[in-house]
Automatic annotation (TrEMBL):
Coiled coil (residue ranges): none
Signal peptide: none
UniProt entry tagged with the keyword Amino-acid biosynthesis: no
Record's protein name: Aldo/keto reductase
Domain NADP-dependent oxidoreductase residue range list: 24-262
Pfam families membership: Aldo_ket_red (PF00248)
Membrane-spanning intervals of the chain: none
Gene3D superfamilies named in the record: NADP-dependent oxidoreductase domain (3.20.20.100)
Keyword NADP found: yes
UniProt keyword list: NADP, Oxidoreductase
Family affiliation: Belongs to the aldo/keto reductase family.
Organism: Nocardioides koreensis
Length: 265
């Protein structure tokens, strides 16, 4: 592991209920057992202050242990978990189980992990609003929703999701999707940014080589400059640190445009 401390960006975005969400977070999908504890601990040591987990990841206990043992104050970390829609009718029970595993009395963001069928989204969303009002979740949002479903739950409750977490990368960039969320006051958060061939794409690799950066750093920086939340994941401590080391450079306008264009290619 390198000794140089990563230059971690401190940029945040404002959310519906007054919270501020770091644009850079650490994702924990597919991390289990000791790997989950070690990787989350490494992320916190590197300077990440935003952790993303979910009920179906089955690692909330490990994330909670890493956070509790990190020495980082709970109030300094933005903590997200997600509820699967098959827990409809048991939403608050599910959240309380998550809180116990995470060793905290609240999460900073609670998401519906993917859409339910039929009219189920509105019913689940009402339970989410109840959780926010009870202080169990400071902000509430959705994941894998399109804008029509965002509008559906907003209309049903007059409470709009603070965040929509979707698969996102330069290869999936869609200006209309980004603009549609901004018009609604919904923060877009991207997952799987470093998957799907992005790290090997020749345009991304050329920009990275010219900038003296890794392809992963270029992709993460692209998210930040768009104001899109990004949650890279790794089990390797050096890569975890490298992915966070993106505060001291910016991508030129022409590079941003070239990366945006990959979503149309």
């Amino acid at each position: 592991m390198t000794d140089t401390a990563p230059r971690v960006p401190d940029a945040t975005v404002s959310l519906t209920n007054g919270g501020r969400m770091p644009l850079l977070g650490f994702g924990t999908w597919q991390l289990r057992g000791r790997d989950a504890v070690r990787a989350t601990s490494a992320a916190l040591a590197a300077g990440y202050r935003h952790l993303d987990t979910a009920t179906i990841y089955r690692n909330e206990g490990e994330v909670g242990r890493a956070l509790a043992g990190s020495g980082v104050p709970r109030e300094d970390v933005f903590l997200t978990t997600k509820c699967p829609p098959d827990r409809a009718g048991r939403e608050l029970e599910t959240l309380r189980e998550s809180l116990a595993l995470l060793q905290t009395d609240h999460v900073d963001l609670w998401l519906i992990h993917w859409p339910a069928g039929g009219s189920g989204n509105a019913d689940i969303w009402r339970a989410f609003v109840e959780a926010r009002e009870a202080g169990l979740a400071r902000e509430i949002g959705v994941s894998n929703f399109d804008t029509s479903l965002v509008d559906e739950v907003t209309k049903a409750t007059e409470v709009r999701p603070a965040v929509n977490q979707v698969e996102w990368s330069p290869l999936l960039f869609d200006a209309d999707t980004l603009a549609g969320h901004r018009a609604r006051g919904v923060v877009l958060e991207g997952y799987s940014a470093l998957r799907g061939g992005t790290l090997a794409h020749p345009v991304i690799r050329e920009i990275a080589e010219r900038a003296g950066r890794t392809p992963a750093q270029v992709i993460i920086r692209w998210h930040l400059q768009h104001g899109v939340v990004v949650i890279p994941k790794s089990v390797d401590p050096d890569r975890i640190r490298s992915n966070a080391d993106v505060a001291d450079f910016t991508l030129a306008d022409e590079d941003m445009s070239a990366l945006d264009a990959l979503g149309r290619s």
